[in-house]
Request: fold
Amino acid sequence: MENIQVAVRIRPDPEPSIWAIHDQHIFLNNQMRKPPNGQGRTTFAFDHCFNQDSKNTDIYSKEVKSLVLGSTNGINGTIFLYGQTGSGKTYTMLGKENDEGVLLQSFKDLFTKIEADLNKTYVLRCSYFEIYNEQIFDLLKPSSKLQETLQVNEDQKKEFYVKGLIEQSVSSINEIFDVLKRGEINRHYAQTAMNHNSSRSHAIFRLYVQSITNNFIRQYRREQSQHKFPTLEQLEAENNNQLKGAMVTESVLNFVDLAGSEKVSNHFEDAEIQETNRRVKEGQYINKSLFFLTQVIYLKAEDKGHVPFRNSSLTKILKSSLDGTSRTLIILCINSAALHFDYSISTLRFGMNAKKIETKVLANINYQNDDEALKILLSDYEKKLHDYEKIRVEEKEGFEQQLNQLQNENQQLQNRITNQNAQNFKCIPKLYKEITWADRFKYDLHCSGAGDILVTNQKIKKPPQHDCQGKLVLSALKVSEQNRKTLISNYELVKNQYLQLNEFYNQSRLKIQQQYEQIQFLNVQYNKLYSYTQEMQQQLNFDVKLLNTQELHQMIQFYQSQLLKLQIEQQDREQTNTQDLKNVYNIEQFKLIDSSSQNQIDVQDYQQINLDDIMYANMVEVEMVKENEVDQSIESEEFFKIEYPTYLHHSNNITKPSINETSSQQIVQDLSEINFKTVLQSFISEMDVLQTSNSTHHKNNSTSCNKKQTGKYKTPDKMKKQSTSQTTIRGKQNIEPTRQSFNNIPKPKVRPRPSGNANEELSMLLNNAEMKARDFQHVGQKILTIDKLCYKKCLKNYERAMNVKEEACLKNCLAKVINGIDFLHNLNNKGGLDRAPFKTEGGFWSK
Ligand SMILES: Nc1ncnc2c1ncn2[C@@H]1O[C@H](COP(=O)(O)OP(=O)(O)OP(=O)(O)O)[C@@H](O)[C@H]1O
Reply:
């Protein structure tokens, strides 16, 4: 007694395996997946457990080999591949290139043993069929007859057999491979053509093994191996004495690739399956056959009376193998991933149940007399002949069918070619029209026309003579050749024109490029000028704006008020010193002589005006006339002229050409308070002299004093004369400053001293000094007036320039005006005058 062998194999999967293997145990890896509550055991023990790394050779050598080789001793063997779809059943059975399946390894092993065993002669037959929806399809039939289903019948001995199933005799490993290959091709064909889903069918490869042992057989076999087939008479004659009886063994090996063991419910879950009754039926049949298979195995092993082999085609066919005397191996295939846990558990439980089954393995050995043994061999021989004949006929039929098919196809193709040629010929003119000139020349007139037409520049390939359309083609070619020549000549013409145009175009482009560059350059220039003009415009606007401001008026008002103030002071003094001071300077008597009328500058000459001209043009002469002469005898009562200080003409590089070097190198002096103090000091020293000379000299004092004054103060006549000359001679020469003129700064006028003591003289001197100081003040005021007049003049000139509205003139003029203003500004800074009429916080004169 021995149990059904059960082995489990885990299919490799990219996902981690939830199953672990240790020796003969397979168990759930708790770390990967927790066992479901109440679902029973998750650890199983089998005869062999193969992990993901196992190869088909491992499975074969450990489980399958002994079972297969037992067939040579008359022991039936059945190998079931059980498991869900995609779990590796077919892989285990048939394998891949680098991992040969157990079936091929079995064949190899078997034939190796058979060939090595010289005491026996083996008769091998095989069949390959599929049970699909309880219907049997012979996979070794020609594909044309593949759809024929076979029936399972029962013979007189109550044995089931598949009626009409091909049992192909095989005598070598190659022959059995060919059979297997044919069966596989038909299986795939059935899958596509007949819509047999291989995973929902049971595929059974069956190998019948018969062995005969005796001398006769050995001899027969030897002859057979040498391809010498002795006749029966020969055999009987030659070996009559050797036929003493033989041992005959018979066994069947079944390799069963079962359908996927999924539950029927799963099929129903599939929407597609729900819609298709066929699929539902498949599932039902699969589960039914698997259930009955399990039941049969179990009942037979338990020996509990009636075993319902008839319930399914699978059990009927496998009856001889499952009668409890066969070796049975179940290889459980499971997927390792957690996703398939339920199916894997189901498979493992099936294996556990199957493993409990005990079988009594018996060898099918019959001792036959020689005649019987000979009959076996003869039947095998005949069968082989029959098979060959059958195959030959089938092949012949197949070839004939193929031939007919090919002939039909050939005819159809020829018809298509003829039609296509006719269409192509029609298309030639149209094609030539459609092909553009450019295309033709581009491709060197390599036009493909109808059929085999090929036109090149060099030669025309003629179509084959047997071409029924030859004439048509030739005429088409002639036309095309003429067209080609015309096209070439036209092309040359157009090409020349194009070259000329191209040259012209290049020249024009060069010209345009140059012009463009010039425009660019001019643009840059223009932009520069424009920005400069803008700048100048802004500057002019700014200056004009400034000049137009009220500040000027305020300034004038300021000076007027100053003058008024001085006038009032003067009058006050007049009142208080009527006796002593009869000479009152009337500021209003200052005669401002505007020389603008005499110095009209032509608009056209503005650009030629230099700064000196402006400055000299701006100079004015001031005549100061002393009015209300009280005492004509007093020498000090006289007209005097105020001349410009020298520095007026030396600052800002303003030099008069007539000025000699000595005068230009004079030390700049001004009318500042310091000068005034110096002068005052000189008078004080005069006073000292007077004091020391006492009264004895006082009478001469005035004389000496007058004498001194004579050089510096002119008599009224002289003054008048001078005045006249200055009035008549205006301009540059007239106002040319000299050293002498600077020295002519008005000295204090000595007032007539009443006779008396020294104290009285002193007080007189003081009075004189005071008057002199006032005179200096007047001089200062006068300069202010001059400044003002200068400024007015400048403004006038500027306005004139503005009228010209020529930028160059304006610019030139403005520069001069600004220089003039600067000049005055410097004067203001240098002059020591106690006022800064042009200074403002914002830098009034800033450029
Ligand atoms: N041990 C293995 N090693 C490598 N690949 C395998 C292995 N087992 C199975 N495969 C691969 O898994 C896929 C499914 O295997 P297979 O067709 O043998 O499953 P099956 O159980 O026969 O499925 P079905 O029931 O649909 O016929 C195949 O591509 C196969 O090559």
The radius of gyration is 72 Å.
